[in-house]
């Protein structure tokens, strides 16, 4: 029996084969990849649960890897057409396009959204899910980048970030965004939290 591509039941990854490919890519580009393995299913479900997808509008994913968080969004019930996902690695981007043909994948730089989004550069998003390694950048640059992302969010929408750090990788900016986190997800390699950046002054029920 065939499975409709992009449906919530799609496998979304190839288990051991994806883990080996991810690890081999990390050996060649450790700073770009930032992780030795794809995030665990429990971690991805937590990321999707924390994202403000209940707000009407498109969703932006940055650094999808081989699509584990993309799959979690679909499993949450987000329709694939709402998702735009930007991956820098050309080989990963090709695999993602074949794996989730109804999701809009762009091979490009998630740090330069004006260029990467092109004619869609002024679009506002209902949520941004961020997994690009950022901790090798100075704090001021991280805050500048996140301010830019916050300018691309709809009212009440949030930005969620994958991180293994014990502290928020991006410090809150009063008047722009504040930060909270999920509990640690222990079965991730390594254990990680979802950091949740919320617009100051915007109320949202926790997922
Ligand atoms: C830590 S991995 C996360 C992958 C996946 N989201 C997961 O949870 O398993 C980071 C991903 O960001 C991608 N990446 C790195 N720099 C990027 C950039 N400037 N723009 C877009 N993607 C980038 C890497 O190629 C890699 O796929």
Kindly list the characteristics that best describe this protein.
single chain, alpha/beta, Rossmann fold, seven-stranded mixed beta sheet, 7 helices, globular
Notes on the structure:
The chain has 207 residues and is an alpha/beta fold. The chain has a single domain, classed as Rossmann fold (3-Layer(aba) Sandwich). It has seven helices and seven strands, in the order αααβαβαβαβαβββ. Helix 4 links the parallel strand 1 and strand 2. The longest helix is centred in the N-terminal third of the chain and has 13 residues. It binds S-adenosylmethionine. S-adenosylmethionine binds next to helix 2, helix 4 and strand 2.
In short:
With 207 residues, the chain is α/β, with parallel strands linked by helices. The chain has helices at residues 16-28, 30-33, 41-50, 68-76, 90-99, 113-117, 139-150; strands at residues 59-62, 83-87, 104-107, 125-130, 153-163, 177-181, 193-199.
Tell me the number of structural domains.
1
The bound ligands are: S-adenosylmethionine
What structural class do helix, strand and pairing data support?
alpha/beta
Percent range of helical residues = 25-40%
The N- to C-terminal Cα distance equals 34 Å
| Strand portion | 15-25%
What's the architecture in CATH terms?
A: 3-Layer(aba) Sandwich
Following the backbone from N to C, one meets helices and strands in this order, namely: HHHEHEHEHEHEEE
Strand order of the largest sheet: 3-2-1-4-5-7-6
Per the CATH scheme, the topology name is Rossmann fold
What is the mean pLDDT? 91
Instruction: Tally the beta strands.
Output: 7
Task: Please describe the biggest sheet, giving its number of strands, its sense, and whether it closes into a barrel.
Answer: 7 strands, mixed
């Amino acid at each position: 029996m065939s499975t409709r591509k992009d449906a919530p039941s799609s496998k979304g990854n190839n288990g051991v084969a994806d883990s080996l490919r991810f690890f081999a890519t990390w050996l060649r580009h450790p700073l770009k990849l930032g992780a030795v393995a794809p995030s665990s299913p429990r971690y991805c479900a937590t990321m999707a649960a924390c994202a403000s997808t209940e707000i009407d509008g498109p969703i932006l994913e940055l650094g999808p890897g081989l699509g584990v968080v993309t799959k979690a969004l679909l499993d949450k019930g987000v329709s694939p057409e709402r998702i735009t996902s930007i991956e820098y690695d050309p080989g990963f981007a090709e695999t993602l396009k074949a794996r989730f043909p109804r999701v809009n994948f762009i091979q490009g730089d998630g740090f330069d959204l004006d260029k990467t989004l092109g004619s869609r550069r002024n679009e506002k998003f209902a949520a941004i899910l961020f997994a690009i390694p950022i901790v090798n950048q100075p704090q001021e640059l991280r805050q500048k980048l996140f301010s830019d992302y916050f300018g691309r969010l709809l009212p009440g929408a949030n930005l969620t970030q994958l991180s293994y750090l014990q502290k928020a990788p991006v410090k809150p900016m009063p008047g722009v965004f504040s930060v909270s986190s999920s509990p640690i997800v222990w079965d991730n390699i390594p254990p990680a939290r979802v950091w949740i950046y919320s617009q100051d002054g915007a109320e949202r029920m926790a997922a």
